[in-house]
Amino acid sequence: MNRRLSNFAPAALAGISLMAFAPALAQDVKLPPTMTFTAYDTGTAGFNIAVAVGKMMKDKYGTDLRVLPAGNDVARLAPLRAGRAASSAMGSGSYFAQEGVFEFGAKEWGPQALQLVLSSVDCNGASLGVAKDTGVKEVKDLKGKRVGFVVGSPALNQNSLAILAFGDLKQSDVKAVEFSSYGAMWKGLINNDVDAAFATTITGPAKEAETSPRGIVWPPLPHSDNAGWERVQKVGSFFFRHVATCGAGISKDKPIELGNYPYPIFVTYGTQPADQVYAIAKAMITGYDLYKDAAAGAAGLAADRQTKKWAVPVHPGAVKALKEAGQWSDDQETHNNALIKRQAVLAAAWADYGKSSPPSDEKAFLDGWMKARAAALAKASMPNGFE
């Protein structure tokens, strides 16, 4: 797959420079008068949830939250890294960015010390949505079909490959069609330019596809198929079995055994001051009732529904807010500290690689980095994750 990057300012672990937090309307939460979050394109689940959170912040704390749409992972993280955004509503791309792989293995990026604020797991699933008119019933039926991929979005692309793996398929077994953004890919499905595209089942574009002449189906990933799930998790270790009971063509009466992972995952950089991240997390926890029903999937942001021991650490500021909500434990603390240590190992490996006169060719640079990364993790007795 052709992977292209726009030119962004370097500094893999740059800090966030935001305005000083001003007193808010609530006694124990201090938010700035304005903030910016980034998310996927307008109408997507992540964007809609971020907007719902923003309305809560305006109504409860007087803060104006601007949600900046972006078509891929690189575009979502660039404003966050540059200090123009306070948080980004990411998906599994947050894990790839932390690890410095795929697009984030380019010299303009490297491992990103991303940390969680809050994340959502709700009634939806995350999988390949397929146009109903294709006749596809099972994942293996996608062989030879057109599957969408998004330039600059390793999360979407790797997720698609993970789902294909359930049917024992690889990218070479399908016709890969590249798009410039997530939204463009789903318009491509509706316009019959592609047959399958990855998404959460509650995303707006999937709803549009459901009501279009093509329709939509979600080929199941039966939870009893251990071999299939082993293949999924070999490509996407962050997936877990999940019964979807909501989304395009899905209901409590018509559930589907699929996979899922936290989405959206509101992230920031580890260098952002703890009091700033605490204020955001605290506001989202205390204002939960004001937005939980305002967008599909928002209910999954509840403090007591946070995914424990995931692949990216929780920011210390958010940890404080979760502790106050009674949703933190000693074993979670141990796991979190190990992940923060992992980020330090990756950062040191990236710095050392940069001093080693790496090749200027993009592919050779990435290949060299992946070897250096693997060696550093092995020395630290930490799993590679990308063999």
Estimated structural class: alpha/beta
- If you average the pLDDT, what whole number results? 92
Q: Numbering strands along the chain, what is their spatial order in the largest sheet?
A: 2-1-3-12-4
Instruction: Tell me how many strands there are.
Output: 12
Helices, by number, come to: 12
What percentage of amino acids are in beta strands?
Answer: 15-25%
Distance between the termini: 18 Å
Helix content: 25-40%
Q: What is the level 1 CATH name of the largest domain?
A: Alpha Beta
CATH homologous superfamily grouping of the largest domain? Periplasmic binding protein-like II
Can you describe what's shown?
Helix 8 (274-286) packs parallel to helix 10 (316-324). The two termini are 18 Å apart. It contains twelve helices and twelve strands. 37% of the residues lie in helices and 16% in strands. The chain has two domains: 1-120 and 262-387, Periplasmic binding protein-like II (D-Maltodextrin-Binding Protein, domain 2, 3-Layer(aba) Sandwich); 126-260, D-Maltodextrin-Binding Protein, domain 2 (3-Layer(aba) Sandwich). Mean pLDDT is 92; it is low at 1-26. The protein has 387 residues and is of the alpha/beta class.
